[in-house]
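Q: A reviewer asked whether we had any structural model of the full assembly, not just the individual parts. We don't, so I'm hoping you can provide one. Inputs are below.
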Amino acid sequence: MKNNWISIQRARQADAIGTVAQIRGWVRTRRDSKGGFSFIEVNDGSCFGNLQIVADGTLPNYQSDVTSLTVGSSVVITGEIKASAGQGQATEMFAHELQVTGTASATEYPLQKKQHTFEKLREWAHLRPRTNTFGAVARVRNRLSYATHSFYQQEGFLYVHTPVITASDCEGAGQMFRVTTLPLDKLPMVAGKVDTAQDFFGKSSYLTVSGQLEGEAYATALGKIYTFGPTFRAENSNTSRHLSEFWMIEPEMAFFDLNDNMDLAERYLKYMLRDLLSHCGEDMDFFEKRIQPGLLASLQLVLDKPFTHLSYTEAVAILQASEEKFEYPVSWGVDLQAEHERYITEKHVQGPVILYNYPKEIKSFYMRLNDDGKTVAAMDVLVPGVGEIIGGSQRDERLDVLTDRMVESGLNPDDYWWYLDLRRYGTVPHAGFGLGLERMVQYSTGMTNIRDVIPFPRTPGNCEF
RNA sequence: UCCGGUGUAGCCAAAUUGGUAAGGCACCUCCCUGUUAAGGAGACCACCGUAGGUUCGAAUCCUACCACCGGAGCCA
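A: Here is a predicted structure for the entire assembly that you could use as a starting point for your response.
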């Protein structure tokens, strides 16, 4: 490239010293000395750090442009990269030419060169990626996504695109968003009910809450597959770890049992963390320093030792034996409350833990019934600070058992005819799980609110951007 | 959806508990030839979330509503 446009990430490397190059980005801050020159810090998103530009008073547009350069302005600067004379950065650029691409009114531009609360930044979701924290979150999220693909591809998995729109209104979990083209102000009625036969698909349709069922169809043909896409839940959830729209990674493997499943989940989580620590060092240092001190050591510890495995029964025993006072009492058969899960992962284990073999009553119909007749081959991976990051199970491959469990759960097997076909024809043991990407980003960065780890969060009552 | 909390200038934030709205940052002006959310000086900036009510007087008390935060449920 004739103008030698380089990223700020490259310009900050010591081996860039001596080159004449161009950088393009946004002004983060400006400090000037009235006597002669200004320091301008520019960020272009390529890395956490800024490049310090030394703009000398001899620049032809120094008075007209540089001295009034505001935070948020976009600039194209050509100059020589030199070793920095000051503390705090290895290199800096001596500007030969500085061009202002777009100004940002100092009185109107919301972001200032100081810290804003995350709550306030949510109101400026379109501008918050220009801040240190959200830039770092975006790069971490990108890296975790990339690591997901490289992990599964290396493991011989096939990336499958399961549908976003689904017609089965009871995929298992949660309230669904309805998808319709019917006129809401003039709904076609039949016998006092909406005539859904007239809807776009000839029946009711919804946004998916999981790609699992379709994933199973492909796993029982192609062996090992994974999905990675958006997922929708219309629950009226208002917490720091729930979104109405989030991204989920769902591997599904034929000929895998629960142990294989748990082993894969552990290797996947460790792969992501190792990849993140070795590729996003500067961003991770920021999270360690400003968001959650101790983060790096605790993540490193996760890499170093095997995950703790506890059966549901063992977990209940541990909870009952503990001195901890719980708001909800624990007994075998009850669903574990957040306080219970937190105790197990944060106090008892102090790291990731895999809970498995839950009572069948508190889990989904498709989870494989164990020989004891009381538990199913389910597993949850819990991590400190976030809670459940993975939920999965071995699926029941036995047509009769699965059908019985559907009926027990109040479901009509006829609605799942194609899902049952997978058991009718060449059935195999298989297993899979779902990982919430946002929760993984939370865990990796220490960010406490899930709305701050997705670019434009969708939550009840919030769809501004 | 339930429980608790908060809502004061562009941003952060105080008001002795009913008495007539601190301070900081930013913006603007001035000073300082290498700074590291720069430093120093000055000026400017508020119908105190919205709507009612009590009172001589309300940011402070009451009612309703809205928004946000924390916790819970649902789950990823």
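A: Points you may want to mention in the reply: Residues 132-154 of chain A form the longest helix (23 residues). The CA atoms of residues 79 and 95 of chain A lie 4 Å apart.
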